[in-house]
Specification:
- By secondary structure, this protein is α+β, with helices and mostly antiparallel strands.
- 18% of the residues lie in helices and 27% in strands.
- It has a domain at 36-62.
- The chain is elongated.
- This is Hemin uptake protein HemP.
Amino acid sequence: MTPPRIDVSPAPETLLRMPPAQPPAPLPSAQLLQGRKAIEISHNGAVYRLQQTRQGKLILTK
């Protein structure tokens, strides 16, 4: 016999009173690069390269 399911989601009227989730604060690219033109970022077992172009744009490659 399986146990009964219990709905633990908030009631719709509760959702209306909850404050909106705050988005994460932007991280300045200078803080990541620290004066370098490129860095490597490890994410979920893969390595990505973040580099700044001569025009000041960012490129993220795997």
